[in-house]
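Researcher: First entry.
Model:
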Amino acid sequence: MPEFDFEKLEVYQKGLSFVKEVYRVTSTFPKAEQFGITGQFRRAAMSVPLNIAEGVGRDSFAERKCFYYIARGSVYECVPILSMANQLSLIKDDVHRELLDDCHRLARMLNGLIASIK
């Protein structure tokens, strides 16, 4: 089965793992939050690998960079969502720290990807 170029990127693979973890964690959130914090968190997390993939598929470096910036913005969006989920006691402190560490790693990786485009 042929691979697409973006599937080989470590940051893309890390983004997929992050989405999987966000889905696992949010599956315990109250049903009343399905269209609130749960949906917003899942959409923001999913946006990371989706925008990496779309960026790789673009022809110009400027377009690629734009989609990588959007992916990084989605990582940043997850940070206050994590804080709110922790403050609302939807996630425990250790889960909050682990996912926040994932966000930091993803942001650094995306910064590297953005910097690699000249």
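Researcher: Second entry.
Model:
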Amino acid sequence: MAPDDELALVKKAILLGKTVTGCFEWHERATDRVRHDPELRGFTTTAIRRLALEFFVAGGTIQQIKEQRPEYNDFEYYYKLIIPNPEFPNGLFVEMRLFDSDEDCPTVLLVNAHPQQK
């Protein structure tokens, strides 16, 4: 799939996540890690998902990154948002992956969140 086509599916999945369950959700393995991360200062997975959705709908930029980490070589790209938030001086980093490229109902899973490092 062409990079622009994949990015379009990611954007569609996030927008569908406003009203369709299952299109923009947390990966179940990531939820425990995020819930127990003290650096997130009590931000819940629900709150992070909501912030990501609101940020994107308001015109926030999604960055498509060529995956180079060997442990994630099943994916050609990952996607990230850096959400401005007063709790985090450099913003909140949110990582996502396209898990289902169905054109009618694509699925993007949130796989990580943490305070953005410089």
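Model: Note on the second entry: Residues 85 and 91 are 5 Å apart (CA to CA).
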